[in-house]
Write a structure and sequence with these properties.
The protein is mainly α. The chain has 6 helices and no strands. The longest helix has 26 residues, at 145-170. It is globular and about 55 Å long.
């Protein structure tokens, strides 16, 4: 029929901008995938980015709304990081308990609602965006920052109190402090006196 009606993508050619965007996205994902096993290095890089943001916010004495929004976002990420993937309160109503509540229950590993890599990635992106926002004066809304700080601290305390009560009620700990080591089978000592030579 008419070859001009399908748009420019029928023959497989892409515009240079779309090709560059696809190449950049592929390369970006490649480096993200390579960084996944390097947990300590990733968090060190995040610490450097967060340090630069804090120094910039301190030196320019402004952008308190940006910092407050960043703090609220961090709090939401932290709650998702500390929460199980399936909320026991909801699951208990549907299927019964999902997390072990007794010592004799079957071991089930803690699965986070927000995995560590996504937690790190979201935090890093948030600090980068907040850092870029400090270069635009439209985001420097004049506010009385002690009220924002007090409100954020109260919100943090109340939210974490609720989260800790949830952890205690359903008996889960969202942290593992290293891989559990097994020493193998315990050897039963043999009595050499019973062995006689022929």
């Amino acid at each position: 029929m008419e070859s001009g009606l399908g748009g420019g993508g029928d023959d497989g050619s892409y515009s240079p901008i779309a090709q560059w965007k696809a190449d950049f996205s592929r390369r970006y994902q490649y480096y993200l995938d390579k960084s996944t096993p390097h947990v300590f290095r990733r968090w060190m890089a995040f610490g450097v980015i967060a340090f630069f943001y804090l120094i910039r916010a301190f030196l320019i004495q402004g952008f308190y709304i940006v910092s407050y929004g960043l703090g609220i976002y961090i709090l939401n990420l932290l709650i998702a990081f500390l929460s199980p993937q399936v909320d026991p309160e909801i699951q208990e109503l549907v299927d019964g308990p999902t997390l072990p509540t007794l010592g004799s229950d079957e071991f089930r590993p803690f699965v986070r609602r927000l995995p560590e890599f996504k937690f790190w990635y979201s935090l890093t992106k948030a600090f980068c965006i907040a850092f870029l926002m400090t270069f635009f004066s439209v985001f420097d809304v004049p506010v009385f920052w002690p009220i924002l700080l007090f409100y954020w601290i109260m919100l943090f305390v109340l939210t974490m109190k609720r989260q800790i009560k949830h952890m205690i009620k359903y008996k889960y700990v969202p942290f593992s402090f290293g891989k559990q080591r097994y020493s193998g089978k315990k050897e039963v000592p043999t009595d050499n006196a019973d062995i006689t030579k022929d």
